[in-house]
User: Fold this.
Amino acid sequence: MLNGPTTEPTVSVVIPTRNRRELLARTLGTVLNQRDVDLEVVIVDDGSTDRTAAYLEGLSDERVRVLRHAVSRGVCQSRNVGLAAARGAWVAFTDDDDLWGPTRLAELLAATQANPDAGWACSGVISVNQRLEPVLGSHPPIPEDVVRRLLSFNCVPGGGSGVLARTDLVRSVGGFDVQLRNLADWDLWIRLALAAPLVTVPDPLLAYVRHDGNMSTDLRGIDEEWDRVTQKYEGARRRLGVEVDATRFLRWTAGGSLMSGDRRSTARKHLRIARREGDLKALARAAVVLAWPSLMVRRRARAREESLPPGWLADATTWLIPLRAASKLDPTQPSPSVLLKARREAD
Assistant:
């Protein structure tokens, strides 16, 4: 285990990982490449059985600390272990497959400094495919409306990688609920929103990488998670007069089922939407999924591409291009040093 620097950092970045050595290396490169921020990285190896442990043992950057579970304890437990070990006043979580723009932490910290009451921050997010080509853009929520929107459905983009928060705030609200998996980020963001104001940066500073191994394509137990989260905050919704957006949840899970190749589950969810809303388009989608699932995938991809704001997209493209170049240089074993070299050459 690496001990890290002796001085306290401003930000602790927690990265849970399991059996994703190549993806982790690329993600770590973008974290260590953050500009103008004193940071540490706490990597929690959740019982990896591939070459991850050997890779982590070979790291020499003093900003990196490694904690290891001999047996997997799950992503939320791993995040909480990293949170307990964090020494920075601020903590940021990132999954081991997502990518950060080089100014992400600096811009989020600047936003919190301009709004001293803020306890947490998030930015715009660009979703990319495995070739790091943008497929969808997501703006951050309006801070003044974030509590009501989060009580209805998750409006903070980026999943578990989406937020920077005060470390003591995250600890005070209890960290991640270990009974949850896919909806654990939404659950924590609700508690943060109820406890402290949010500040946002509109620019796309985070890339959410879509691939077959995404958690969002493995929806086992998702209905039980939905029930747990919605029941937790029933009192807060009653106080504020907010209803959960069950239709949006069904659309989101239908998308995950479609990407995982489960067309029957996808069709069932669209049929549920059709019954709930009297939506004939949802009925048509159910039929298309069963008969021509590839057509539905193509239509979904095209709709995402058309939703991207051109100027906003350009901001993300400037920092994604060096990452694409680094991946082409070493597609099977990207490393932080390769990424840093490509970044410097691009500048």
User: Anything to note?
Assistant: The longest strand covers residues 198-209. Confidence is low (pLDDT under 50) at residues 329-347. Residues 310-329 form the longest helix (20 residues).
